[in-house]
Amino acid sequence: MTLARALLASPTPAAREAEAELRRTHDFVAPEDADMIIALGGDGFMLQTLHAMLERRRIVPVYGMNRGTVGFLMNNWSADDLDARLSRARTLSVSPLVMDAVTIEGERVTLPAINEVSLLRETRQTAWIEVSVSGRVVLDELVCDGVLVATPAGSTAYNLSAHGPILPLGSSLQALTPISPFRPRRWRGAILADSARIGFRVLDPVKRPVSAVADQREVRDVASVEVAIDRATALKLMFDPEHALDDRITMEQFIS
C-alpha cells in the first residue's frame, strides 16, 4: 500500500522549481492527512518541518531532498525514481531536547530543540554561568561567551564549530560544549549520558544578560535553564542507503 505523501518546499527558487517538477508527476495530500512528508530545501527547512510536526503533535517520517546549501540532513535531489527511493530508504529515529527556561521576570518558557540548546551572552560582557548535571553542581562559575547542549544529530552543527565532539547516532549521549570559555581555561566540555539533566544558572543576569536559544527560537534575559533529552518523542528521518545520516556523522570525523 502506498503511503499518503505531503510535499513541502522552502521558498527558494530551487526548491519551488523542484516542487513544481514533482507535482507534475506525483499526487500529494495536505500535511495533516499525510503518512509521510517529502521536504525540499536545506537543513534549516528540515528543522522547520520537524518543529511544525512537534507543534501539531502528529509525527510522521520525513524524507528530505537538498535544494539548499549544505543539506546535511537531506538526501541528494532527483525527481527520478522517487517511489523506488522511498521504498529503499532507511528510517532513523532522533529524540529532541527540551529546554525549560525561566527569565529574570519569572516567565517560564518550554521549547523543543532538535540540534542544540545554546546560552549566549547578550552584550559585550562575558556570561557567568553555574553548570549542574542531574542536580549536582559541576562548575561553580563558567566565564564564557556561551555554552550549548547538542544531540547526536546536532553534534555536527553549531557544536562542531564550537570545537565540540561529534556524537554517533544511537550513542545515547549528549554534548555539553563551552563557547569561547575564559574560565576555566582548560575546560573543553563534557560528553554526558542522554539521561542527564543539564542545568544552567546565570550568576549575574542583570549586568551580564544571557539569552537561551532552542535551535532558532530565542528567549532573552534568562535566569536559569534546564535541558534534557525527550526520550518519549522520536522524530523519524528517512535516508537513501548510500546517504544515511549515521554514516555521514561518522565520516565527519575524518574530514580535515
UniProtKB/TrEMBL annotation:
Keywords per UniProt: ATP-binding, Cytoplasm, Kinase, NAD, NADP, Nucleotide-binding, Transferase
| Lipoprotein in keyword set | no
List the cofactors. a divalent metal cation
Active site, renumbered:
D43
Subcellular location per the Swiss-Prot or TrEMBL entry: Cytoplasm
MF-aspect GO terms: NAD+ kinase activity
Q: Please, which domain of life does this record's source organism belong to?
A: Bacteria
Annotated residues that bind NAD(+) are located at: D43, G44, N115, E116, D145, A153, T156, A157, Y158, N159, L160, S161
As recorded in UniProt, coiled-coil segments are: none
Q: EC annotation?
A: 2.7.1.23
SUPFAM superfamilies according to UniProt: NAD kinase/diacylglycerol kinase-like
Q: Its principal location? A: cytoplasm
Which reactions fall under this protein's catalytic activity? NAD(+) + ATP = ADP + NADP(+) + H(+)
Q: Check the record and name the InterPro entries matching this protein.
A: ATP-NAD_kinase_N, ATP-NAD_kinase_PpnK-typ_C, NAD/diacylglycerol_kinase_sf, NADK
Protein role? Involved in the regulation of the intracellular balance of NAD and NADP, and is a key enzyme in the biosynthesis of NADP. Catalyzes specifically the phosphorylation on 2'-hydroxyl of the adenosine moiety of NAD to yield NADP.
Which PANTHER family does UniProt cross-reference here? NAD KINASE
Q: Which family does it belong to?
A: Belongs to the NAD kinase family.
Q: What is this protein called?
A: NAD kinase
Q: Which organism is it from?
A: Sphingomonas jejuensis
The UniProt gene name for this protein comes to nadK
